[in-house]
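New here. Invent one.

***
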Amino acid sequence: MQSESNSYKFPAIHDFPPLYTRQPTESTWQNQVKEWERIILAYYRSQRLYRLNLVEATVPGASPLFDNTKIKRRLSLETLEEIVNEMVRKGLAEWVTDSNTGSKSAARTQALIYWRKPEEWSSLLWNWINEQGFNNSIMTVYEIANGEAAEGTDFYEMDTTVLIKALEVLSANGNAQIFTGTGDVDSIGVKFFGT
């Protein structure tokens, strides 16, 4: 993440030392969480990131987002987990499920960060499908996120898990049908219905 942030300018609050220490007073803590939510969402949007590995992100020097070398402060893993828990509660993040067991990881080490929620992504996708004339056609998840037609869109090279969640919203609304295959996730097919 270090090289990705070279062009990103953090807000002034990012240099405020108390931001990196979990505040004991509940009202102050809630304000601290709100500031971190804004910072995380803005950073992830600017860098087009979707997944947060809490352990990796809190290693010294690993991420300028959580390790501010200018003021020599770093957010702890425990505090970051509490912040992400609040984000999950508000629908701004989701803990990643262990694909082998189907259960949430006990350690809660990874989260999807929703700088756009799946419902918002589904609206963008649906508009794109209609604009491109892809109604009544079948595409793979890979084509949707990485195909030539997707270049230049906000969802180009999108995280597959987030894309599938957006497609599930379209499916629930009756605008798409998802066909799971026997191969990898990128080969999942999606049929889009007419308007």
The two ends are 41 Å apart (CA to CA). The mean pLDDT is 90.
